[in-house]
Amino acid sequence: MSPVAETNKLEEHVSEIDNIKRHHGEIIYETNGFISKIHRKDKQLNRRTVNTYTGMWKEDKKDFSNKEETTKVRRENAQKMTNAFYDIVTDFYEYGWGESFHFARIYKGDTFEQAIKRHEQYLSLKLGMNDKHKTLDVGCGVGGPLREIVRLSGAHITGINNNAYQIERCKAYSRNLGIESRTDFVKGDFTNMPRELDGKFDSAYAVEATVHSPKLEMVYGQVFRALKPGGLFATYEWVTTPKYDENNPEHGRIIHGIEEGNSIPSLSSYEQALEAAKSVGFEVLEYEDMAMLEDCHDPWYLTLKGSFSFSGFRMTRIGRWTTHKLVYFLECLRIVAPGSTDVASFLNNTADALVKGGELEIFTPMFFILLKKPSTAQ
Fold first, then answer.
1. How far apart, in whole angstroms, are the C-alpha atoms of residue 259 and residue 254?
2. CDD domains from the entry (predicted)?
3. pLDDT tens per residue across span 324-368
4. Can you list the domains of the chain with their CATH numbers?
């Protein structure tokens, strides 16, 4: 990189830090305090960001039959839409779900935390990670899976994420946990990765993140570029299953609810995900829908549907309802930033859509795919 490019990159980084401090406050460097976080947000910026995200879905509400055109618009604006989404939902996710923003295969008798950690550790196992590995986390969120896998494998992991707020959260966690030497973070678009990442990594993984890509081919192609020849890529994908019927109005409403509540331009199917991987040069080694139930499993959506429990209360239906009412009350008192209630509301609606999609078996958040970049590829 030339000195001029380095200077421009540094200036851009400083500007982004200033922007997220204006929106989120100095709280970005802290690792707890949900009410404190949503209290410190800039009122105008938060309202504007909420409007930016919800505005992407207004046309669908007016005319659901015109989904093809509105999907095209969201694909064209995917980075803007997803950045706005994570600016407004990250604090809610950390409060209600924890540091790892994903689902997991649940065995009977599991705690939520056990299931989440096993799901992350499974990736390390499949990739054969060790302390010599350099690995890429594609769409790393606030770094929950990354930190678990670093501590398990000893590998050095680089997380890429295009949301500056989440990148700063990642850095804060790594600093507080003393694992800065084993982690690195790149603020960047995973559909257009920096050239300096080309051929750098022994392995890569994605945890329910590539669904934000306008098309899976776009992100898969970039991961292919970043891997060394022979490198492995493991991913958990959000996809529709063969039971999904696009001509069924109920199915359509449920899938649209999942897309709207998770910043997804358009969900792919099993087959589309596999074909996208092959189209950019990957060899498909394994694939499995890990949401498929055996006698030893509980449904992946059970936590969202579950009744009262102290350990996972915030994630349950009554817990989410309580959070929504609390945020509404605090927003009425002008204690938290405008738009916070809107966020709590659409996240509740999304949870309901996820449960329905799971019950009808038309959607899975854990279609596991293991891919290999051919040893002869460059």
1. 9
2. AdoMet_MTases (cd02440)
3. 888 888 889 888 888 999 998 989 999 999 999 999 999 999 999
4. 1-377 (3.40.50.150)
